[in-house]
Amino acid sequence: HLDRIGEVDDHVHAFLNVDADGALAAAREVDAALADGQAPASPIAGVPLALKDVLTTQGLPTTCGSKTLENWIPPYDSTVTRKLREAGVPILGKTNMDEFAMGSSTENSAFGPTHNPWDHGRIPGGSGGGSAASLAAFEAPLAIGTDTGGSIRQPGAVTGTVGVKPTYGGVSRYGLVAFSSSLDQAGPCARTVLDAALLHEVIGGWDPLDSTSINAPVPPVVAAAREGLRGDLKGVKVGVVKEFSGEGYQAGVQRSFEGAVEQLTALGAEVVEVSCPNFVYALPAYYLIAPSEASSNLARFDAMRYGLRVADDGSHSAEEVMSATREAGFGPEVKRRIMLGTYALSSGYYDAYYGSAQKVRTLISRDFAAAFEKVDVLVSPTTPTTAFKIGERVDDPMAMYLADLCTIPANLAGNAAMSVPSGLSDEDGLPVGLQIMAPALADDRLYRVGAAYE
Ligand code: GLN
């Protein structure tokens, strides 16, 4: 995999940093333990992985795709990083991402875009485009992403790979640099559903260092994937979300989705149409809640505690240093989100914006609850279009935001969701994703249905 990275990453740019020495040392340790007759530390011991650059790695730079953290080397590992190391998983390096995970194309990275391996002129999705592209380009067999509004699933869909947003609280956020704390969730990315399940069981579980982590066992996702691979979905009820079709959905995406629904039926599932009327308000609610939380979380980048500091020549006040550092360190999308969030939280507007968005969030959770009384999982296209061209949406934030139309409800409600490849669009030959959504703590249902389908 290191050789492959050397061959193709100049063109793909999935990685911001490659840690060849660290990865080889970890792999040698696994070899030595096996030679010594010890049992492998996990089923994926020795299988290398690409880690999104938003999770801290002790002694290795963690930039979050931002100039603000360009030279920051964390003094500690995130819980996900620690679990990977303990499981004997060599970490190949850190992957490119939209700055602070804000974006849908990886074009908001301060270090240049990642290219979709299917067509280098197109985006690999975002914010975790680097992780998804590393899988599609065969630079890594496993990767970690984070999903606040779709950043694991949408890149999975447009690169033809599998991406899972676990139940909120299912994977620790300790050491995951916060964007929107009530939505952020780390999860597995892979080329097959079973591979994702094996990784999910390694990174999941309760963590006393994250107060929002759930004190419950990891759902039996590997067993569920194996069950699904038998190709029988008899007794499984699947709901098609009525609201996620029609205008704005490419015909090729729509046809691929219809084909997926037919295949689920052929596998024995009972498929019905379900209405979730409040899902259409998920996008506007998200773009109030996520920027509000971001405006608070990003206040920590004050030019004193982490990373970049400019105008630090002794002739400026602390406030001037802070202001100049933020001006130089944050890109335009990050500034836009901070402005939006600060506005939505300001005293005269709080009830009208943030307060209303939180109410919509409750309505979306109720839509899910009502749907899951009737069906076991919900399905939709993961994203309305296939990979768009690099540059196409950079000057149009609203068009960029639409990429997450279908993925955001699961984040707002905190439940589990997966994107699994559903073939290539008959319009442009590019990958399309099928989204599967399950109730909180029922992540295993995603794996059963996803593995049967893929
Ligand atoms: N594209 C969405 C945004 O820009 C989601 C990002 C994410 O999931 N991190 O906020």
UniProtKB/TrEMBL annotation:
Amidase domain location: 1-446
Active site: residue positions: 52, 127, 151
EC number from the UniProt entry: 6.3.5.7
An annotated GO cellular component: glutamyl-tRNA(Gln) amidotransferase complex
Coiled coil: none
SUPFAM superfamilies for the chain: Amidase signature (AS) enzymes (SSF75304)
Molecular function (Gene Ontology), one example: ATP binding
Metal-binding among keywords: no
Record's subunit section: Heterotrimer of A, B and C subunits.
PANTHER family, per the entry: GLUTAMYL-TRNA(GLN) AMIDOTRANSFERASE SUBUNIT A, TRANSAMIDASE
Matches recorded under HAMAP family: GatA
UniProt-recorded name of the protein: Glutamyl-tRNA(Gln) amidotransferase subunit A
Organism: Amycolatopsis thermoflava
Gene: gatA
